[in-house]
């Protein structure tokens, strides 16, 4: 069962026409925008539903009355501007409940991809949210699903939904989820800080401060007594005999020629500067390390010959995120796939990914980079399960 296609079948030409009139946009642009908004909203629900909060998602479906009737009443709802506005208002709250207060990033991106106004894209996110929950609620009620059944249903829809999301939006959705998962650590730090502040008020601390003040007071009294007596004069034989004008002597090194210096004519200097700018940066000097040129050669050979999982040690991500920090080795992969039109690439998370979800998100991030460089999406396969035997964050396998 593909719920995404089920919803698209309900949004026919007449419904799209009504929405375009309400928003003041071209029907063809609204159709393009809906193709992006639907999987995006569905993807947000899937990515933010965890084992810990699946029960709350079930409560939202039941308490909000999302039982699927809305799918059968879309024609009547969209025929009334008042009902459309009400649906947008309710749906905006739903989307913000799942995604948080940063929905503008998503709506701005959809607007630029669909050639519609940013306000129209924001309205579409709100309009679609109750429809997506209605489709989920209909399956939950008709099949009598519990929390575990809901989680299974979302996992079954995950692949088809994430593939339909525009690649440029995938990282934004994943980054939002990772950012939210880091909040509890801040509260722990706050508790530790408060506990340290509480400890600072203990009696031992006050006793220590009192002793410190007394010691400082004694030091001040001794200093004043010492000043009144005056500093003892040094015997004549102990007076320093060093010439105090030493700092006025000219620096003798200025009059001496610099050793190993070479005068370079201006034309040769310019040529040398140009060659330095064009020369590649040298790799590490240790014998155990591999230079970037050698690494690229090794990766190129593996792409041509290996049938196993290939490590991508030069591809790095931000810590705990699917944001690509350095896309090392990407040019070799793109070059190989362009030169070998029959080849397909499978991407999976490696042993350095914390879990299957993070590995899968990073695989989608690499897929996005490949698509941006002209590799067709049909030639890229995403494997949800990570390959623990490969010691890198992401790994690939070539099928010829």
Polypeptide structure, described:
With 400 residues, this protein is of the alpha+beta class. Among the domains are: 3-164, no CATH class; 292-399, 60s Ribosomal Protein L30, Chain: A (2-Layer Sandwich), CATH 3.30.1330. It is 62% helix and 6% strand. It has 17 helices and 6 strands. The strands form 2 sheets. A 4-stranded mixed β-sheet has the order 1-6-4-5. It has a two-stranded antiparallel sheet with strand order 2-3. Helix 3 (27-48) packs antiparallel against helix 8. The longest helix is centred in the middle third of the chain and has 27 residues, at 203-229. It is globular and about 75 Å long. Residues 176-201 and 228-295 have low confidence and may be disordered.
What ranges have pLDDT less than 50 throughout 5 or more consecutive residues? 176-201, 228-295
Biggest sheet: strand arrangement: 1-6-4-5
Largest β sheet strand count, sense and barrel closure: 4 strands, mixed
Structure classification:
alpha+beta
Mean pLDDT: 76
Identify the overall geometry: globular
Q: In percent, how helical is the residue content?
A: 55-70%
Q: What's the end-to-end separation, in Å?
A: 31 Å
Number of E-type strands = 6
User: What is the rounded Rg?
Assistant: 34 Å
Helix segment count?
17
Order of SSEs: HHHHHHHHHHHHHHHEEEHEHEE
Q: What share of residues are in beta strands?
A: 5-15%
Q: Care to give the gist of this entry?
A:
The chain is an alpha+beta fold and 400 residues long.
List key phrases describing it.
17 helices; 400 residues; two-stranded antiparallel sheet; 60s Ribosomal Protein L30, Chain: A; globular; 6 strands; alpha+beta
């Amino acid at each position: 069962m593909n719920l995404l296609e089920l919803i698209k079948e309900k949004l026919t030409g007449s419904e799209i026409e009504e929405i375009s009139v309400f928003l003041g946009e071209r029907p063809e642009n609204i159709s393009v925008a809906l193709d992006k908004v639907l999987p995006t909203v569905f993807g947000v629900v899937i990515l933010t539903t965890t084992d810990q909060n699946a029960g709350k998602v079930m409560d939202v479906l039941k308490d909000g009355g999302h039982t699927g009737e809305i799918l059968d009443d879309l024609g009547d709802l969209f025929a009334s501007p008042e009902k459309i506005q009400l649906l947008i208002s309710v749906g905006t709250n739903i989307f913000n409940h799942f995604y948080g207060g940063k929905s503008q990033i998503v709506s701005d991106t959809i607007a630029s991809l669909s050639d519609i106004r940013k306000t129209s894209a924001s309205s579409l996110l709100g309009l679609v949210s109750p429809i997506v929950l209605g489709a989920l609620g209909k399956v939950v009620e008709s099949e009598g699903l519990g929390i575990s059944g809901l989680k299974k249903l979302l996992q079954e829809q995950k692949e088809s939904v994430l593939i339909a999301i525009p690649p440029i939006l995938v990282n934004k959705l994943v980054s939002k989820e990772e950012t939210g998962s880091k909040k509890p650590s801040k509260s722990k730090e706050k508790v530790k800080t408060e506990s340290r502040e509480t400890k600072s008020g203990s009696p031992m601390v006050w006793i220590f401060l009192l002793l410190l003040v007394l010691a400082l007071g004694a030091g001040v009294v001794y200093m004043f007594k010492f000043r009144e007596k005056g500093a003892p004069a040094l015997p004549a034989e102990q007076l320093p005999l060093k010439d105090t004008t030493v700092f006025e002597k000219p620096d003798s090194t200025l009059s001496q020629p610099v050793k190993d210096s070479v005068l370079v004519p201006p034309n040769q200097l310019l040529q040398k500067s140009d060659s330095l700018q064009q020369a590649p940066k040298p790799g590490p000097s240790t014998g155990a390390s591999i230079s970037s040129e050698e690494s690229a050669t090794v990766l190129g050979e593996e792409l041509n010959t290996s049938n196993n999982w290939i490590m991508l040690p030069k591809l790095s991500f931000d810590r705990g995120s699917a944001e690509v920090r350095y896309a090392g080795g990407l040019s070799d992969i793109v070059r190989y796939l362009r030169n070998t039109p029959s080849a397909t690439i499978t991407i999976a998370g490696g042993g350095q990914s914390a879990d299957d979800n993070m590995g899968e998100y990073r695989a989608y991030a690499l897929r996005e980079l490949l698509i941006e460089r002209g590799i067709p999406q049909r030639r890229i396969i995403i494997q949800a399960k990570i390959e623990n035997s490969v010691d890198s964050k992401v790994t690939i396998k070539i099928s010829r």
